Amino acid sequence: FHGDRIAAEDLFKDFYMHMIPEKVRHSLGEYYTPTWLADDTIDQAIEALTEPHRESWRLLDPTCGSGTFLTMAMQKVLAETYGEPDSVRLEQVLHRIVGIDLNPLAVLTARMNYFINVSPLLAERARFHIPVYLGDASVAPQSVRVDGIESLKYEIKTLQMPLDITMPRSALRDVTKFTVEMAQVELYTKARQSGR
Questions:
Q1: Does the pTM of the predicted model rise above 0.85?
Q2: Which residue has the higher pLDDT, 47 or 9?
Q3: Is the terminal CB of the chain with fewer CB neighbours within 10 Å at N or C?
């Protein structure tokens, strides 16, 4: 954080790469992008957009790792919104930059990077949702109707058995509310399990 300017950076990439041996990372298909390449790739993608879309570009990194593309995109959004109130700048980052990864440790490091990089903007806002998700971006949900309700159906393969999850689309519209509600379900489930 430099005065009113925020310099976003991937603080955990080197740590993660040293913690997980290269052979293990590569066997999982994990290859980390150098910062300069992520920055250049985002610049080229933005330049390729037509004029009405260039002002409101968004980034989804479906294999975000520790968040190199996310943090480079944050730098660009923060530069574009320089001089705006912190609440506006935070909302722009949260709305425009999203990550997904299959590796829980990568998601955790990306979320920590995201949080640390937006923390200078948090003075005006107590609760927010970090849009970095654990998931397989190569698996798309199936649209289904359950008792006349539009829903999305996922199958998540686990070591034990596949999990079939069906959620009403209406429950997924407000990501922050959904995340809070799912955290409550998790707490309730853990409390019931510990009471057995």
A1: no
A2: 47
A3: C
